[in-house]
Amino acid sequence: MNVASEIAYNDLPLDLPHAGRIALRLCRVIQNRGGESVQPGYEEAWEIAAELNELLFPCRLENEAPIDYQESESLRQSAAVLGRGLVTCVGRHRLMDDRIGQCIRNLFECLAMGEEGARLSLLAGENPYSLQRP
After folding, report:
1. In Å, what is the CA distance from 61 to each residue of 14, 18, 21, 41, 108?
2. Cα–Cα separations (whole angstroms), residue 93 to 7, 24, 38, 76, 77
3. pTM for this entry
4. Positions of the chain with pLDDT under 70
């Protein structure tokens, strides 16, 4: 655990297969939260999560990241862009939720971007006093 500028975060190595599992979890959480909801934004949030899931599916399926550094880095950066977009969507439509926030934090931890994930998770609705936080 590192502490920088007042926020604790986990500094973990890149783990694209587990990031793929988190992406699938995000799809399920958003689908369960949205369900039959007429609240705008759930469909957009689910589409972003589904795109993230599709991006990382090969890593999850094979349970390994690409051997090529550039390919892994490209996947990592693309996943981070989608994760940031999901947080923006969740905030814009006021879909903030503790579980969504936890998944965002976990996703960014798996992308070796723990500090950013700790910040974004709060914007996505994670309880700042959650025992799940570092």
Report:
1. 17, 10, 9, 29, 19
2. 25, 21, 12, 26, 24
3. 0.92
4. 1-5, 35-38
